Amino acid sequence: MYKEKIEEYIDSHMQEMLEDISVLCRINSVKMPEEEDMPYGPAVAECLDTALDMAEEYGFEVQDYDGYVGCVDFDSTLPEQLDILAHLDIVPAGEGWQVTKPFEPVVKDGMLYGRGTADDKGPAVAALYAMRAVKELGIPLKKNVRLIMGTDEECGSSDISHYYAIEKEAPMTFSPDAHYPLVNVEKGRLEGHFTAKFESLDALPRLVKIEAGTKVNVVPGKAKASVEGLELSVLEEHAAAVKEKTGIEFQFAPEGDFCEITAVGAGAHASQPQKGNNALTGLLSLLCRLPFAACPQIEYLKKMADLMPHGDVNGTVLGVDMEDEVSGRLTLAFSMLTVDKTGLDGQFDSRVPVCGNEENVLKVIKEKMAEEGIDLLNDSMKPPHMVDGDSLFVKTLLKIYERYTGKEGKCLSIGGGTYVHDLKNGVAFGAAMPETENRMHGADEFAVVEELAVSAKMFAQAIVELCG
Predict the structure, then answer these.
(1) Do 190-376 and 3-187+385-467 have the same topology in CATH?
(2) Which residue among 3, 177, 297, 466 is least crowded, i.e. fewest CB within 10 A of its CB?
(3) Residue 227 — φ and ψ, nearest 5°?
(4) What pTM was estimated for this model as a whole?
(5) 175, β-bridge pairs
């Protein structure tokens, strides 16, 4: 019902929709230090104000939640039913842009290029236009739909914590911040943080320091260590053997008695560590072979390498390798480590299937590390998230997807977390097609124009069927 009218409306308003997306994408809404009435800085505040002004011009009720979140209501006098949860903050532009500058959006070859076009300003505006279509076509609704526009999705979602401290969760929520068809299962997460202290000894040869990793959710593509008192030929001999076994390359920068070692592997997202080649664990493989003077520091280094050896991306040695049909296998990426002569500080990122919990994951790792004198500081973990794939909500969205795309609608499970991870009845729906890799977070990020159009149509249909 209403499919033809919805399609005609969106098609006739596509140029206007692209222009509105571009208005938001010209704003560099990266999180910055808090200022008065601007929890994430002036640029984020400007982007939120602009989006709310846009919605108000189209005749919607809007509300600003202290600069954290902005909301657009179809009709707030109707009972709550559906929330669409999108975000206006972005990751930094970075380098390497070629098609256009990051904040100068342009349409080329059927793609809208610019930072935020896919993640998540484009989908946010598509949701707004879905609401416009329903409103301006005069389609009657019995229950309300609310577009929630957050501003801190990329840096911890403190915006949503603020919002849900004030408002309750709607009966149904979807976020257009992933891929189609629909994500209803998300693994849990343990961001492990561990430390150890040991006696300082200065006997040569010695390890001076290790500095590896950039973020806990990134498999490091590079890792560095500094050593003293070892001949370059000795380093190169052992490096060749480790490279043959691991595929990790090693670069050496000798300076007097010291030498800086750089391990070069391949980075990856921590939710898919098997797609990378961990430079940190490769570096430990090399360091554990070198003829250092005996000392507690090196003993702990070997313990770390034994607990999370190179190539073990499933926590097998730690005793937490598990798998279920719904969400797949546990993954674990050793992602950050600093070592000096008196201690170590490290982090790992584990994505935990539905069958995992604090008892069979966190407690097991904590005890395993404690046996080796290493203190895992965590006392809790983020639990897995699952919405019933047979629910009316999920089935409705999947049928709409099939009707508008001609493709099979099925539920997906992911290792990463989305904006709806902590919502009881929240799923991710769109806004990129399964085959599209839109360079999210990278240079030349883009949204496919046709995918934005069909997303707006599907969102409008979802509003009609779930709220009508």
Answers:
(1) no
(2) 3
(3) -125, 160
(4) 0.85
(5) 428
Cα separation of 85 and 68, whole Å?
Answer: 13
Q: Of 14, 23, 46, nearest to 130 (Cα)?
A: 14
Note the CATH number of domain 3-187+385-467. Answer: 3.40.630.10
Is the CATH number of domain 190-376 3.30.70.360?
yes
Of 465, 468, 453, 467, the closest CA to residue 127 belongs to: 453
Q: What element of type H or E holds 195?
A: strand 188-197
Cα separation, 244 vs 407, in Å, equals 44
Instruction: Give the separation between CA 99 and CA 101, rounded to whole angstroms.
Output: 7
Residue spans of the domains in the chain: they are 3-187+385-467, 190-376
Task: Enter the tokens of residue 440.
Answer: 């999210």
Q: How far apart are CA 98 and CA 79, in angstroms?
A: 48
Query: What single-letter amino acid sits at 119?
Result: D
Cis peptide before 431, with omega less than 30 degrees from 0?
yes
Non-local CB neighbours of 34 within 8 Å, separated by 6+ positions? 40, 41
Tokens coding 295: 């000392």
The neighbour count for residue 356, using CB atoms within 10 Å, is: 26
- The β-bridge relationship of strands 172-175 and 426-428 is parallel
**Strand order through the sheet with 222-228:** 249-255, 258-264, 222-228, 206-212, 331-339, 343-352, 188-197, 375-376
At residue 430, what is the residue type? Answer: G
Q: At what angle do helices 14-25 and 3-12 cross, to 10 degrees?
A: 60
Q: Burial, 1: exposed, middle or buried (Cβ in 10 Å; 0-12, 13-18, 19+)?
A: exposed
In order along its 468 residues, the chain shows pLDDT tens digits of 799 999 999 999 999 999 999 999 999 999 999 999 999 999 999 999 999 999 999 999 999 999 999 999 999 999 999 999 999 999 999 889 999 999 999 999 999 999 999 999 999 999 999 999 999 999 999 999 999 999 999 998 999 999 999 999 999 999 999 999 999 999 999 999 999 999 998 899 999 999 999 889 899 999 999 999 999 999 999 999 999 999 999 999 999 999 999 999 999 989 899 999 999 999 999 999 999 999 999 999 999 999 999 999 999 999 999 999 999 999 999 999 999 999 999 999 999 999 999 999 999 999 999 999 999 999 999 999 999 999 999 999 999 999 999 999 999 999 878 899 999 999 999 999 999 989 988 899 999 999 999 999 999 999 999 999
Task: Name the amino acid, one letter, at 385.
Answer: H
Say which amino acid occupies 102.
Answer: P
Beta-strand relationship, 172-175 and 80-87: parallel
Other CB atoms within 10 A of residue 246 CB: 20
Q: Phi/psi at 167 (nearest 5 deg)?
A: -110, 155
42 phi and psi angles, rounded to 5 deg: -65, -40
